[in-house]
Amino acid sequence: MDSALSLDTQIQKLQEKIKTANLPPELLEKINGMIGLLSASLKQGGGTFVTYESISSYIDWVLSLPFNKETTDLLDLNTAKQVLDKNHYGLESVKNIILEYMASIILSIKSNPEDKVIRAPILCLIGLVGTGKTTLASSIAQALGRKFERIPFGGMGDARALRGQSRAFADAEPGLIIKKIVEAGSKNPVILLDELDRVTESARSDIMGVLVELLDPEQNRAFTDHYIDYPFDLSHVLFIATANNTTNISTAVLDRLEIVQMPSYTDAEKETIAKSYLFPKIRQSTGLSDNQITIDDTLWPAIIRPLGFDSGIRSLERTIQGICRKSARLIVEGKSPNGVRITNENIKQFIPT
After folding, report:
1. From CA 258, how far away is CA 240, in angstroms rounded?
2. Which residue of 13, 89, 117, 287 could cross-link 235, Cys pair, CB 3.0 to 4.6 Å?
3. Would residue 352 be called left, alpha or beta, if left means φ above 0 and alpha means ψ between -120 and 50 degrees?
4. Residues 121 and 183 in one domain
């Protein structure tokens, strides 16, 4: 009897949450029907905690969906340029393409502020590891004042990871699309579809099929996740994709993408990035002050290429992290209490040569 009363109390709490929610009428009717069946089953002695948990979890996901919530767009191209220049050195050709792309989005939104549907082709940044694809996507979100979410496609082996699983299964949950929308808390985030070319061979056709729908503004107005089982409008989402190459991306998906080739960084560009961007940021995150670590200018070529050529800056970032961590240890252990200076004489202690 006590458990029945407890379950009845929980159902009443669910009903109170639903009353304050701003849901589409059809979905509200569907949820109220589920609650009604659960209450009737409980009165007849058939209600179980497991059934309640399943319905409660579903309702929590639905109530978390931002059906009517959006962030306000920053429609200023000068601000966008400042953000891109602040976060990325060089890449002028890529940044110009992005600014032109954003200009068309800004004009589209300004001309029809009630619509806000993104009809431009999806940018797809193609390049080797470490060339700045992910951070460029994040900068676009920052420039527009939108939330930023990332979906990793590397190793994805089932289309249900994107579209969710039917509630008929005990371990069912929404797919990554809905999860990222919930995390963003708005219906117009920037969502990065990262490493599209790295899905598993066995699931490629199914995943590409979901992407065709996802990237088409006429279809994604009513994207239906198998778990939520109710259409959600994704047409206000700005999708951006990345890949190392286009070989494993289907033709139908490529038709919806605008390919932007990411160039490799030159040594001169890497030196500027290392000195002006990476080193100050990593030094600060390691807890080192300006006067606790210095690197002689003549050493940067060796730091940039400790193990040979690398098209991106991922290896460079790891090298600088290693230098800073080793310096921090020397200071904490009292071996260099006055700070560390990296010179030609001691460089071998800090990086592989």
Report:
1. 10
2. 117
3. beta
4. yes
Segments forming the whole domain that contains residue 46: 2-64
Of 261, 281, 297, the domain-final residue: 261
Beta bridge partners of 257: 122
Q: Where are the alpha helices (DSSP H) in the chain?
A: 2-19, 25-43, 49-64, 77-87, 92-111, 133-144, 160-163, 176-184, 204-214, 251-254, 267-273, 279-285, 300-304, 314-332
pTM of the model: 0.83
pLDDT tens-place string over residues 135-145? 999 999 999 99
Q: What is the mean pLDDT of the chain?
A: 88
Are 212 and 313 found together in one domain? no
Tally the domains of the chain.
3
At 210, list the tokens.
Answer: 């979901």
What is the model's pLDDT at position 352?
Answer: 61
- pLDDT tens profile 265-317: 888 888 998 998 899 999 999 999 989 999 999 999 888 875 555 667 888 88
Give pLDDT, residue 131: 82
Cβ-contact 73, 93 below 8 angstroms: no
Residue 18 one-letter amino acid: I
Same domain, residue pair 242 and 120 = yes
Which two structure tokens, joined as six digits, stand for 275? 């000195």
Residue 342 phi, psi (nearest 5): -90, 120
